[in-house]
Write a structure and sequence with these properties.
Order of helices and strands: HHEHHEEHEHHEEHH
Shape: globular
Number of helices: 9
């Protein structure tokens, strides 16, 4: 790495300990995105931002590259080899739909100050039908999927007020444009191929049973 955490700690005149730099690196790897607007991530974000080249050098041997967005103030860690990360079809579909809604909002100029896009449930339901010809998951399932999306730093669920007929809405976060890209389309294609193979296998079994 470019400079050790010990050297960076000394250069901070004792403001930051070695453990502070280590924790920031760990959070970046495990949470994937650090937003300056998130109170709990603010310190880690500024450490990475202020020592960006050092963190780039530290994480490169792990096959992780860093990107930063100065406008919306976030840093994202992108693994070079993400095929080993288990992702379900339901998770893939939700993130692809949310990415489409984000892109559409960007074209219409509906992105908020922090780079977020609000997606209401009726809008999400329509997007599922229009984009993938599937019904939107039930509310309980959608809540669970949203928790996964939050861990990846691409969306967060916000509960509605008591007088709102919908239980919650989703806020899509700007790092979705960095994370949900070609690899996700490849995952969807793989899921589709697996489904087709399963259908063919089932059809073959039925033909064998009929012949028997």
């Amino acid at each position: 790495m470019k400079r050790s955490w010990n050297v960076l700690s000394q250069l901070s005149n004792g403001i930051h300990a070695v453990a502070d730099f280590e924790r920031a690196a760990y959070r970046l790897v495990t949470e994937q995105v650090l937003y300056a607007s998130d109170r709990g991530a603010r310190t880690a974000y500024h450490l990475v931002e202020d020592h960006f080249d050092d963190y780039v050098s530290a994480l490169a041997p792990l096959g992780i590259r860093l990107e930063r967005n100065a406008h919306y103030r976030y840093v994202v860690a992108l693994p070079a080899h993400a095929e080993g990360v288990p992702v379900t079809l339901e998770e893939t579909l939700l993130l692809l739909v949310l990415r489409q809604r984000y892109d559409e909002a960007a074209r219409q100029g509906d992105i908020e100050e922090l780079g977020e896009v609000v997606v209401e449930l009726p809008e999400l339901q329509e997007a599922y039908q229009a984009l993938i010809a599937r019904p939107m998951p039930e509310v309980g399932t959608l809540r669970a999927l949203a928790r996964t999306a939050r861990r990846w730093g691409v969306a967060r669920l916000v509960d509605s007020e008591a007088d709102d007929p919908q239980p919650f809405h989703l806020r899509v976060r700007p790092a979705i444009v960095d994370i949900v890209g070609e690899t996700w389309l490849q995952r969807l294609d793989q899921h589709n191929r697996d489904d087709e193979a399963g259908d063919d296998e089932a059809a073959g079994t039925e033909e064998d049973d009929a012949a028997a």
